Amino acid sequence: MIYQKVDDAQNIFDLRDMAKRRLPKWLFEFVDRGTEDEWALGNNREAFQRIRLRPRMLVDVSGRTLDTTVFGKTHKMPIGIAPTGAAGMMWYQGELDLARAAKEAGIPFSLATGSITSMEKIAGEVGGTLWMQLYMWADRSLSHQLVRRASAAGFEALLVTVDGAVAGNREYNRRNGFSVPFRYNRRNTTDVLLHPRWMFGVLGRYIMNGGMPQRVNFPKELQAKITREYGGNKETRADSLNWDDLKALRDIWPGKLLVKGLLHPDDASQSVDLGADGVIVSNHGGRNCDCAPSPIEVLPEIVAAVGERTTVLFDSGVRRGSDVVKALALGAKMVLIGRSTLYGTAAAGYAGAKRALDIYRSEISRGMAQISCNRVSEIARHHVAFDWELHGPSYAASAPRAPESEAMLPRDNVSALRR
Ligand SMILES: Cc1cc2nc3c(=O)[nH]c(=O)nc-3n(C[C@H](O)[C@H](O)[C@H](O)COP(=O)(O)O)c2cc1C
Fold first, then answer.
1. Is the CB of 285 inside a 6 Å radius of any atom of ligand 1?
2. What average pLDDT is seen over the chain?
3. Active site residue 391
4. How many angstroms separate the CA atoms of 317 and 360, rounded?
């Protein structure tokens, strides 16, 4: 289907289709796909399908509001933007566009360590509620430099990503020739030439205005053009990451400290013991460990373990407002959105990011009305049921599943659908 305008997109899957048409394949797949056999990616969507909302009736919900308070601040929706570092490649200066859309929508924006817009620029030109994501480098003092910089720039929370100590095994990136350093080959060059809107509108504009984008939040020692080697995994992935690192960060970071990428209640507990203000239950959108459970499957046990003493946030696999409502019902206080707003940004920059957020606003509001909730804080466990709670344990295994999009399917099935 060809969409004339971004407002024609009826849902996040339509925005994904638009992004797919605009971006070179290697870039689209970098954003869209998972890792290895893409089990985690598929299961992130399927797990939501195994959870039902329990509609309630005859409550006046005409005055409902999506206002959400986390960390002592009220936001306009129970969602925030997850760190991805990719919006700047979706659209020229896309990180500014996405941050602006988040600010206009009254929700937090997280900037990734690997983004191509500096934290000072985001804070100075956009503002709003800004959170900074941190990857820990082998040389810890370099990461600590970034932390101090984020604090000076006025970022309110630090999201320490702990599920990326080793890189996911993304075979499609290697097949597509997408790597750091970027290697030009006939395939990826032809791919760019076949997407002139991206070639001229994004890549061309960067080149005309100062050259290839850089990872401007990296300390000088690691910074380099994103197409060049910047030290390799040895320096930029710390597989020695451990609890002492979290303790050290707690000592130097004055703002809210969130641990991102947890899937086990004991890790959540230990994070809180060491002073974290919140945990983000996440499997990195199915991009790192292909055998990880879907975060929505483990959210209840994590909330049971730490929900009384910390703020539990959630991400991975969210594409619908109803997914947000389900995560809130299972105890999350806010849901972070990754790919959905990247698709929007790729489709039409600020207008596309805004469209994605408008879709979420309307879908969350509809979901709340359907379960008779006027406030986000009213959404509770009794508003959802797992399939097995409704039908018994044997049901979930045998139930037929209707694919809602190729994004939730393993690749082989996608190819089968296309045939
Ligand atoms: C293209 C892309 C890049 C990402 N980069 C980062 C990153 O630099 N740091 C991080 O903590 N998470 C990163 N993530 C993971 C997101 O923060 C988030 O956990 C995930 O996208 C949520 O799943 P969803 O895309 O299904 O919403 C990235 C995700 C994508 C899609």
1. yes
2. 91
3. no
4. 14
